[in-house]
Amino acid sequence: MSKKVQTAISPTRAQDYPEWYQQVIKASDLAERSPVRGCMVIKPWGYSIWENIQREMDDMFKDTGVKNAYFPLFIPLNFMEKEAAHVEGFAKECAVVTHHRLEKGPEGGLVPAGQLAEPLVVRPTSETIIGESFSKWLNSYRDLPILINQWANVVRWEMRTRLFLRTSEFLWQEGHTAHATAEEALERTSQMLEVYSRIAQDYLAMPVIRGSKSEAERFPGAEDTQCIEAMMQDRKALQAGTSHFLGQNFAKASNIRFQTADEKEAIAWTTSWGVSTRLIGGLIMTHSDDDGLIVPPKLAPAHLVLLPILNNEAQRSKVMEYTEKLAAQLREQRYHDRRLRIEIDTRDIGGARGWDWIKKGVPLRVEIGPRDIAKDAVFFARRDKSHREKTSLPREEFCNSICSILDEIQGNLFQRAMDFRQANTQRIDNKAEFYSYFTPQNKEKPEIHGGFALTHWCGEAKCETKIKEDLTVTIRCIPFNSGKENGKCLICGKLSKQRAIFAKAY
Amino acid sequence: MSKKVQTAISPTRAQDYPEWYQQVIKASDLAERSPVRGCMVIKPWGYSIWENIQREMDDMFKDTGVKNAYFPLFIPLNFMEKEAAHVEGFAKECAVVTHHRLEKGPEGGLVPAGQLAEPLVVRPTSETIIGESFSKWLNSYRDLPILINQWANVVRWEMRTRLFLRTSEFLWQEGHTAHATAEEALERTSQMLEVYSRIAQDYLAMPVIRGSKSEAERFPGAEDTQCIEAMMQDRKALQAGTSHFLGQNFAKASNIRFQTADEKEAIAWTTSWGVSTRLIGGLIMTHSDDDGLIVPPKLAPAHLVLLPILNNEAQRSKVMEYTEKLAAQLREQRYHDRRLRIEIDTRDIGGARGWDWIKKGVPLRVEIGPRDIAKDAVFFARRDKSHREKTSLPREEFCNSICSILDEIQGNLFQRAMDFRQANTQRIDNKAEFYSYFTPQNKEKPEIHGGFALTHWCGEAKCETKIKEDLTVTIRCIPFNSGKENGKCLICGKLSKQRAIFAKAY
């Protein structure tokens, strides 16, 4: 009989990946389903990760000249009809407000009353309502560029939901800009994708591939959709952020015009770009293990937790005193220009206490007992290593090196994820091989397949559709850095000038 | 003929206060009406003030142990019926979602489809939906207190709206806490009112009176509503923040129960507390003058604006160089632990440039011309003084004293507002005097009246209603610091133990 390894999360990733994901969220107290269909409650531990993402990203936006503003939650129905492609893409599964009052009904309960002359749609995205403002704000070329961002909630009525990855209501930021020229708008599109790439890689420690979507996968109404794509531990792709060059489509629809320097009338060029609480789903699925969540230090709600050992009554006050002193010493430090975030857990619940913090993914756990105090040493465990591996360092040394330890964990998580992606990415030029790569070996685990395929594609929707229909595999993007290389389309054999990333996706 | 003084805002406060308010918002580019009835667009200058309020307040919340979380935008209709008083107070003018899809209708346009089995209400406040979560989170006394805050948008369908003061959608924070005892919940209620008072007085420079509402003016379902009330420049009161002790009303309605230390079942005690973008309306009406907005330095989107004088072509690059150098020197400084926020305006629009910044209320305007550079001196004007009053200081001295200049402005604004309130607050014990105090002297200016009256009231709703019906004057609060004093109720003459603040209100 083989010795069974206990894990804190059941099932494990290998046993049932989708269920493991739900259990990690539950065990780490990130979020939960709400009584409202498809909507989630983001609990403090999960919301804190979002706040940390927001703060870093907001600073980056502002450094590029973007300013925050706020636009209405509701969009008049006729606005949704303004841009033809947009209607097809977004005017479908929306929450529609039809009444503005509640009254006592004949059976005593409340019923909707006060029907609106024109229904209002709860924003699924705000291009049309923000476009209306831009058309009012913009007069002369001197007013350009307009660089706006909004932090908001949006609603898209989803039939099958999953915490963070796909919910009817989610939190996001949506940037909207208007420019005098196509070149400038395109430059902004790329610039913001670069910001997303930095957030993903340098903060979420999640390696991403930057590229452009195929026409079929574009944002409805965009001329180019650029994206960052990450590989999850089940080798599926997650679209983690998108930046759209909207050409003049929305500007025409919303009448965003300006007078040029030579006093002619011109139509502006616009962009929009967004990331959402979906990033937290990506963070979970990139790093977590069978013991629960692992949060990259730069975004961790707590960088470390202090666990004073208080079972010896005589030593209790001495241990607490040392703990408080250590916490105070650490709190004075800054980690990447933010204060070091420390938790102290004094609960008397035995071994469950340490496991709670393992499951919550806090980067460092420090146990403080009389022996450590006697040595003036700090006994700690890193979340990126086995839970049995613990190290002791003299207190001063620990305090002086804590930032570099956290950076090491941050780097380690990134490298691990990068290695995983590289090990599960193949250049494939043969159709049979491609089909076999994406066909689950084990019928009971349909989610297990090859990973990312870098494969030639002619650019025709027909070939893309064939692959999607046969394998539920889509083009994630045509990567920017793949370089030109002539080849033959996997399906039709026609000339292809570069490879696309194919994968199953969330 | 008297010399006519030009003002940047027309009409002036004396001419037409309500219209002046709208014009200040327009001239300072804070916000505007949106095409969606009753909803506003908060423009970057206005949103930045909100962000600054948020940041300060969020830190204060967290210092008291509160954590942020996020709950659904939608509330199932049956939740609204849970708490009897709450139904009466909030289940009225609500946005109601009845459909979850849009389809092409018979005439080609989009029409609502996919009717929901149970309508959803867009949250007017979240006691009921957050209460549902608390009931799940709470098991044992060890889980208490639960201290949660949410930054969110809420919707209350308003018939008559005014930017910032009363809009159908607004932004706010709502805190919700649960406690083991009534005492602890009451303590939290007061503690959060104290935070609001600090934000109002130390940041908005807006003096407030802290007190409890009369029963008639309480939050529907609360046992005690504490509030901060400020006086605007038209001598009307603005309720700027409320903190509610909810007793066990909502805990019973949402089944928020726990096991006590001696293993009995108990019902929790809850609180809720909120402030909103209404604070910005209060800020505008407390400080602004007939030249436009005045923003207290601690919340200003820009602390100062640099206005290089560039009309001398030969000196142009020299002036710009000096300007950039000064900006860099200033940006290194911190003002109350935040970076100093500097704008540089190089637009070639003549005198309109300076006036733009006066109207936007930036605390300090600095003009930089060749003569100032020759002297290495900074020529500046303060927004709290006449726009003609300008001072020159050697550059080093200016840079070293900028924080104290800003603090002086901040203090000055507060003192001015405090003096105004004191000058317009009377202790009134005589009914005729009271009625005359609140009766406009000039029929054409119904908004001009006495101000705040500190008057004895027996505590009966009847007497309160009489005053409200006769004069549209309400009890703003029974102030905490007024002390016990026996007197006679203004209306019925019965014994009164303390004075209440009576005023017309927004």
Write the layout of secondary structure elements.
The structure is a homodimer of 506-residue chains.
Chain A: H1 17-28, E1 31-33, E2 40-42, H2 44-63, E3 67-68, E4 74-76, H3 77-80, H4 84-90, E5 96-104, E6 110-122, H5 127-137, E7 146-155, E8 169-179, H6 182-203, E9 209-212, E10 224-231, E11 237-245, H7 249-254, E12 257-259, E13 265-267, E14 269-276, H8 278-287, E15 304-308, H9 316-331, E16 334-335, E17 338-339, E18 342-344, H10 352-360, E19 364-368, H11 370-375, E20 377-382, E21 390-394, H12 395-423, E22 425-427, H13 431-437, E23 452-456, H14 461-471, E24 474-479, E25 487-488, E26 495-496, E27 499-503
Parallel strand pairs in A: 3-7, 15-18, 15-19, 22-23
Antiparallel strand pairs in A: 1-2, 4-6, 5-6, 7-8, 8-14, 9-10, 9-24, 10-11, 11-14, 12-13, 16-17, 19-20, 20-21, 23-27, 24-27, 25-26
Structure description:
The structure is a homodimer of 506-residue chains. Chain A is an alpha+beta fold. Chain A folds into three domains: 17-287, Bira Bifunctional Protein, Domain 2 (BirA Bifunctional Protein, domain 2, 2-Layer Sandwich), CATH 3.30.930; 297-413, Anticodon-binding domain (Rossmann fold, 3-Layer(aba) Sandwich), CATH 3.40.50.800; 425-503, C-terminal domain of ProRS (Translation Initiation Factor IF3, 2-Layer Sandwich), CATH 3.30.110.30. In chain A, 34% of the residues lie in helices and 28% in strands. The first copy, chain A, has an eleven-stranded mixed beta sheet with strand order 3-7-8-14-11-10-9-24-27-23-22, with helices on both faces. In chain A, a hairpin with a 5-residue loop joins strand 12 (257-259) and strand 13. In chain A, helix 2 (44-63) packs across helix 6. The model of chain A has no long low-confidence stretch (mean pLDDT 95). The interface between A and B is large, with 63 and 63 residues. Strand 5 of chain A pairs antiparallel with strand 5 (96-104) of chain B, so a sheet runs across the interface.
